[in-house]
Amino acid sequence: QVKARLAFITGALNAGQPRAKTWWYGWIAVYSAGAVTMGVLAATHWNEPVVQTFAPVPEPDRSFAQDMLVGSATFALGVAGLLIDPFVPATAGRKLQPLPEGTPMERLAKLRRAEELLRQCARREKDGRGLKTHLMNAGVNAAAGVVTAAAFKRPWTDGLITFATGEAVSLLNIFSQPMRATRDLKRYEAGSPGNDGASTPAQPERKWSLGVWPGGLSFRLQF
Question: Is the distance from CB of 176 to CB of 23 less than 8 angstroms?
Fold first, then answer.
């Protein structure tokens, strides 16, 4: 039983790790590249030269640079969030692999660690799509919109556009997150190979019989 259960969880963690790593490292790369690129654009366009005319010199239009500055800060927060709260399914299989399993006691200890890692993976996936994550992202994007409109004295429509753009990126991040560990944990708790302690009750076996004798008959159902 221990071997079968351990094989199930090990296979599940290893199978889910490649896509989890792609999602986690991919979004770190996207957020990092966005933060750096927008930061450079904000710095280079902040003091753009104004065309000199005989009329009074107009105020430089910094709306593009301001948008890039706000976007850079938002993306930097995205990188920080992914680093502070790592995506456990991306590394769980690697953490389990070095543990020995040569004796029954070692296999039992490894199984306990495997179950713990699988539950951590499922919990992290649920948190990543949970209400708290949605509210935190909405708060950051709302703050970015307020800064655009209030701090930079821009129209509120510009603030709404900033909020909507940031929220679209946040939702793409949330709903592209893998959820395999959550499904694997449900399968394991519902009755994986050798997991007799968590298996679902077997359907009761029904038997029927029909008896005939002179003057009558009988029907018997056993369950």
Answer: yes
Assign 98 to helix, strand or coil.
coil
Helix segments in the chain, DSSP class H = 2-45, 63-84, 92-96, 104-128, 131-146, 156-175, 180-191
Q: Against a cut of 0.70, is the pTM above it?
A: yes
For 46, 60, 90, 155, the CA distances from 145, given in Å and listed in that order, are 19, 21, 33, 10
- Shortest CA distance to 85 belongs to which of 126, 45, 55? 126
For 175-222, the pLDDT digits (tens) are: 999 999 999 999 999 975 545 444 333 334 444 454 544 455 454 545
CA 168 to chain centre: 16
Q: Residue 114 and residue 9: Cα distance in Å, rounded?
A: 6
Give the Cα separation of 48 and 45 in Å (integer): 5
Asked if 69 and 39 touch (Cβ cutoff 8 Å), the reply is yes
Euclidean distance between CA atoms 19 and 13, whole angstroms:
11
Query: What one-letter code names the amino acid at 216?
Result: G
Distance CA 90, CA 19 (A): 8
> What is the sign, positive or negative, of the torsion defined by CA atoms of 153, 154, 156, 161?
negative
Query: What's the Cα-to-Cα distance from 21 to each of 28, 75, 125, rounded to whole Å?
Result: 10, 19, 13
Helices 156-175 and 63-84 sit at what angle, rounded to 10 degrees? 30
Place of tokens 């989890």: 20
